[in-house]
Amino acid sequence: MSKGTPSTVEPAASRLVAERPLPARTLRLTTVKTEAQILDPAAILSATNALEQTVEAFLGLQNATGYWVFDLEADATIPSEYILLQRFLGRELPPGLSARVCDYLRDKQLPDGSWSLYDEDGIADLSASVKAYFALKLCGDSPDAEHMVRARQLILSMGGAAKVNVFTRITLALFGQVPWRLPPAMPVEIMLLPKWFFFHLDKVSYWSRTVIVPLLLLYAKKPVCKLKPEEYIAELFVTPPDKIVHLDGYIPGAWRKNAFILLDRLLKKYQRFIPNGAHEKAIARALTWTREHMQGTGGIGAIFPAMANAVMALKLYGAHEDDPDYVRGVKALDDLVLDRSGNTFVQPCVSPIWDTCLMLSALTEAGLAPDHERIKKGADWLWSQQVFVSGDWAGKAPEIEPGGWAFQFENALYPDLDDTAMVLMALMRAGCMDDESRLGDLAKAVNWLIGLQSSDGGFAAFDIDNNYLYLNDIPFADHGALLDPSTSDLTARCIEVLAMLGFGRDFAPIAKGLEFLRKEQEEFGGWFGRWGVNYIYGTWSVLSALGTLGEDPRSPMVRRAVDWLKSCQNEDGGWGETCYSYNDKRLAGRGATTPSQTAWALLGLLAAGETHSPEVARGVAYLLHTRNFQGGWDERHYTGTGFPRVFYLRYHGYAQFFPLWALSVYRRKIAGKPTRQQEVTRSRPLTLHLPALHRKA
Length: 697
What we know:
Structural class: mainly alpha
Shape: globular
CATH class of the domain at 73-346: Mainly Alpha
Largest sheet: 3 strands, antiparallel
Radius of gyration: 25 Å
CATH topology of the domain at 73-346: Glycosyltransferase
Helix content: 40-55%
Strand order of the largest sheet: 1-5-4
CATH architecture of the domain at 73-346: Alpha/alpha barrel
Number of strands: 5
C-alpha cells in the first residue's frame, strides 16, 4: 500500500503561482525582427537557451520529500459547500477564514451577477450561483447588498432556484430550503440490490460510488439543518418550494427517461412500506462501507463531495467529535483549504502524483539526466506511492495483481490508469529501466494497466466496462457523469506507455486500442478529451501515442488530426479551447490562447513529424515571448476537466510543466536529436513475464 504523505504541507508551487498572476514579461528574441525570422528555426533554437532559467525555477519548487504539487482550483461550488458544511457540522472555523473564503467567492462573481463553472469568460451557471449566494448569505452578506441583488436578479431570470441540478437540490433540502420530496429518490436499500439488477454500485464510477453511499445515509434520515429565518433564500424561488409538486417532468419521446421518472415517483410514494429489517440492514451496510472507505489520511475517495457527505453521515448517525473516522474525515477536508494572503479557496482534491510525474517528464526532456539529484528524488518518491492493495476495480478483475498509482497523496482503493501510465513514462524517462530492482514493480504496473482494458478495446480511468449508459437517464444522474466509459485520451495514454516498452501494433491490447481510436476520431479530425479541455487535449494524447508507436505521419488518420490542429491556431501563434466546446462541438479548438493548450497542440504536432512547419515555429515563439518574470507562464483559464459540462479544473501547474515540456521537445527535434522519450523507447518488447489475463464475466 502506498504511504500517504501529509497533505497539510503547503504546496511548494505556491511560491510561483500563489498570488495574482504577474504581468507577462516579453522576452524579445534579439535575432528575431521580422515574421520571416520568427519562423527561422535557428533563431528560435538560440532563444530556447532561456529555458535553463525555467528549469532552475521549477527545481526550486520541489518538496524536500521529492514531490511537486501545485494548487488545484475548481469553481465556486467547492468553497460554497465548505461554508455550508461547517454550518451543518456546527463547527467554528478559525477567525477570519470564512470571511476570506467569502472574499474569494465575491471575487469570482461575474459582472452579470452570476458565477461560472470555469472562469471570468465563462457563462452563468445557475447551480453554482445559487450555492455561492447561499454561502454568502450564511456568512452575513445582506440580500440588499449590490452584489447580492445582481446575483438574485440573474438567478430569477434563469428560472430561480427550483431549476438547479440534483446535487444542489439535495443541498437545499439539507438546509430546509426545499422539501426532501423534491430531490430524486435514493433509498438506502440500494445497498442490498443484487449485482444483476439494472442499478448496482458496481455499475457506476468510483467517484459516483464514494459520493452515493454516504448520501444514501443522509437520504435515509432526511435531516434538516436549522437556520435563522433571515438566512433562508426564499427570495431565489419563483414559486414557493412547498407549492412545487414535481421538479422532474416527463419529456415527450424520451421513453427511457420517462420510465425512470415514473419509477422515481413510485419509489417516493411506496418506499415507506419497505420492511424495517431490510431498512436497518441497508443502513448498517452503508455505514460499514463508508467507514471502510474512510481509512487513511486522504478521506473517502480523496475528493471533496464524497468526503463532505461522509462526515455529515457520521455526524448524523451519532459519531462523537473524537470518533477517529470523523476526526480524520474532517481533517482531510480542512487540508484542502489553501489559506494564504490574498488568495484563499478550497481545493476539490490534491494532485501530487500527477504533478510530479508530469514535472519529471518535462525536466528530463529539458535535459536533466536520470542521475540528477532532483530527478532521482522525484522518481524515488513516485515509487514509494505505488499501490499494492486491491481496490474496487478488482470486482471485475480479481485475478489481476495490483500495482497502479493514484492521483492524490493517498487514495489506495482507487488508483487510476491515467496516473499509472503517466508515472510509468516519467519513470522510464528517469532511467528506471536501468535499475533491475525496479523491473518487478514495473511489471506489476504494466500488467495492471493491461488487465483493466475494457471489452470495447479502450481504457477508462478507474474501472473495466463501466459503460451502463442507460443509467445516465435516471433523475439522479442529471449531471451525466455517473459512469466511467472508455475514452480516447486514456486509451492513447496506455498505448503510448506500451509502445515505449517496445510492444508493437501486433500486441493485442494495442491493436484493440487502435481500433477503438479509429472509431472515436471525429469527422473534423480530432479526438474528444475527457480529462482535459477538450479536443486539443484528446488530439495531443492520440498523436503522441501514434508517434511513439511509429505510425506513418502520412497516414490519413494522422493527417486529418494535424490539419485540424493547424486550422485552430490563433493569430498570436498559440492555441486555446473554451470549456464550452463540451456543450457545442462547433467550438472545438476555439478559444482564447493558453500556455497549456498551446503546449498540447505543439506536442501533438511534433509527435506527427511537424517539427519544421511554420505553425510549430509560431507556437514556439508564442511560448517563448510570454514567459513571466519568474520563468514560468501565467494562465487564468480552466483547461482541466472534472466532468464535461458540469465541473472543470484549473491546474495551476499546467501552465508550467507543459510549456517547458513542449519547448524542450522542440529544442531536441530542431537540433536533430532524439527526445528523451525516444532515447528510452525500446526497439524490442521488454520481457516482463506478464501472466495470462482472464476476466471475470
